[in-house]
Amino acid sequence: KVENVNDLPENERAAFLAKLARYYKLTGQKEKAVELLQELLSRYGLKGVDYDDLVSLAILAQEQGKLKLAYKLIEQARKLAKKPQQVVESTFWKAAVEAQEGRTDDAIIDYLKIAYDYPKFEPWASTALYRAAQLSEEKGDYRQALKLYRKVARLKRGTKEGEIAAKKVKSFLQRLNEEE
Prior knowledge:
This protein is mainly α. 78% of the residues lie in helices and 0% in strands. Helix 5 (84-101) packs parallel to helix 7 (124-139). The longest helix is centred in the C-terminal third of the chain and has 20 residues, at 160-179. The radius of gyration is 20 Å and the shape is elongated.
């Protein structure tokens, strides 16, 4: 039982606080988790915090609207990513934060990196492609959105995502024909 983090060896404190913050997140005590996360950063930095904790806490920070913090955590996770699955996952969450920050072009690029560099990593690849299509549509780049939705419709044929993408394709084709 740890009653005071200062009782731990100094090189274990950051990892302990990260695990504790993640525990609070998982038990629904998100505000307490964010407080611990901020204490962790101010007192110890991120050295010694493992990949899984960084990703989990980055998602928490993003959900809580603390986007600068989320970006910092996910960037550190990307540095620690060793396996392709980790590279894909951390890039996906980086793109999600970028999109939420309004950095649409950066988010699209990161989503497309996943889709084209790691196409076998599902559902990450097709979801990233779909999100890139959505962002392209929001940006008003309808031709790019159409191209991406077509690809999703082909990749995910027979699934709910594939049906939604196919409807988007149909809608875009109608809209583009009306414009011409």
